[in-house]
Amino acid sequence: MQLGNKSQKGFTLMEGLVSLSIGLVVLGAGGLMLKKSMDVSFLVAQRAEMQQNLRAGINQMTHDTGLAGEGLPVGGVQLPNGAGSIQAKRGCGPTQCFVTSTAIPSNLLNYALPDNNDGAIFDGVTSDSFTVTYLDNKLNLGGNGNSQAQPQPTPATPISSITSSGTTTTVVLPTNATPGGGNGIQALQAGDLVLFTAANNFVIAEATTVNLATGTLTFVDGDPLNFNQSNAAAGNIQSLKVGGAYVPGTIFLYRVFMVTYFVNNNMQLMRQVNSGPPTPVVENIRQLKITYDIINDAGTTSSSTGTGLITNNPTANGTPGLIKKINIALSARSTLSGGPNNTFQRLTLATAISPRDLTFYDSYQ
């Protein structure tokens, strides 16, 4: 028996190949679009993370720099100097220093201690470090707002006693002082800097031991920052003596924060307070660059803005009292490599801060 004719239609080999090619093109285009979409999402996520890190670092630096000079005498505080003195330091702890240029210029603790090119090196560029100093007007050590120091929140009370024996000075705080802090205030601790005021005489020393129970502080020579120098001719605690003795009821104390920022070899922006251990502020930081707008007291013409003002100077020329503005640029690198070129992303955030004790310049003259 013969079956009837039945139409059997389908794709020819050529038609199948053409269809397969078109399908592959469509799938490839879809895959490419998906890849580009994932690359864009990756870049956006990495840039958002970098921007968040940079803002956190900039905000912390802005906070400290905005306080620079608060409560300090105009012109800074002279550190131990003269015969028998050695250079005081910044950016150091008990066992090591964390920046290359540690010396405090002229042994003068000013609201800003500029330095450059003494941090970690990335991409062939050396990061800067930066130090600002201000008085802590929250922790009560018995200060009274004497002279140019800021008032404490409790009534004026001079320290109870101060004695010197060899290379050790011992101070007993007044009974109404609260070196233990409280209410979120950090307690006084070894390594903190303390400002002594007596009439118009100002001295800064580093507490080497702190007994919170008795309110007793000791200041022993050989501290990590070289602030305690009993044998120096001037600028030490012994210079507060009048007629060879400390005058009762005339000496008041305040805690001082000397804050140093630098970038370490682990790509961390570090913040060190006094001689305490540095703590990381943010991760994946490649560069910290600081420049200054300074008053040109020589009166010569600047090519940038005219007579008397120089902008974006890499240093403050050893004269922090002439700083008009501090410019901060912080650069970050993404945590992961990726994107179209499988590379790390980089982002820079910059800001400018006018410190409290900025030098006046008449830009309309």
Summarize the structure.
The chain has 365 residues and is an alpha+beta fold.
Structural summary, described in words:
With 365 residues, this protein is an alpha+beta fold. It has one helix and 21 strands. It has a domain at 48-282. The strands form six sheets. Strands 3, 6, 9, 10, 13, 14 and 15 form a seven-stranded antiparallel β-sheet that branches. Strands 7-8-12-11 form a four-stranded antiparallel β-sheet, with no helix packed on it. A four-stranded antiparallel β-sheet has the order 19-16-20-21, covered by helices on one side. The protein is 15% helix and 30% strand.
Features:
1 helix, 365 residues, 21 strands, four-stranded antiparallel sheet
Number of strands: 21
- Proportion of strand residues: 25-35%
Low-confidence blocks of residues: 145-155
Succession of helices and strands: HEEEEEEEEEEEEEEEEEEEEE
Question: What secondary-structure arrangement, pairings included, does this model have?
Answer:
Layout: H1 13-67, E1 77-78, E2 108-109, E3 112-114, E4 121-122, E5 125-126, E6 130-136, E7 161-165, E8 168-172, E9 193-198, E10 201-206, E11 209-211, E12 216-220, E13 251-263, E14 268-273, E15 279-283, E16 285-295, E17 301-302, E18 306-307, E19 309-313, E20 323-333, E21 346-353
